[in-house]
Amino acid sequence: MENNFLDYRNAVAFNPEKFYKTTLFQSERMMLGLNCLEPGQVQEVHEHADQDKFYFVLEGEGLFVVGDMEKAASAGMVVLAPATIIHGVRNIGHERLVILMGIAPGPTTSK
Fold this sequence. Notes:
This protein has strands spanning 20-26, 31-37, 42-46, 52-59, 61-66, 69-74, 78-81, 87-91, 97-104. It is mostly beta strands and 111 residues long.
């Protein structure tokens, strides 16, 4: 890895049409990325068959779905979504929502 020190603020961006996501780091063992949502934007519920996921809220507030639970989380909170459990998020605040996201193992590029 060329750069072992990352400043997430350099990767924050927003798209008025849909939530923005970008990858900060990826290997076969994990992936780290950012999800950036304008107020009202949604990452639809989905699941990962073989990967555990975490969301770490950096800025803003979101309503997270994990399985049959819904809970608001704001800056400083971590939300965990184990493999095979549906999960997603909606920005319920008036401010932008920025989430550090990680999954392990990393996504595979070939099937």
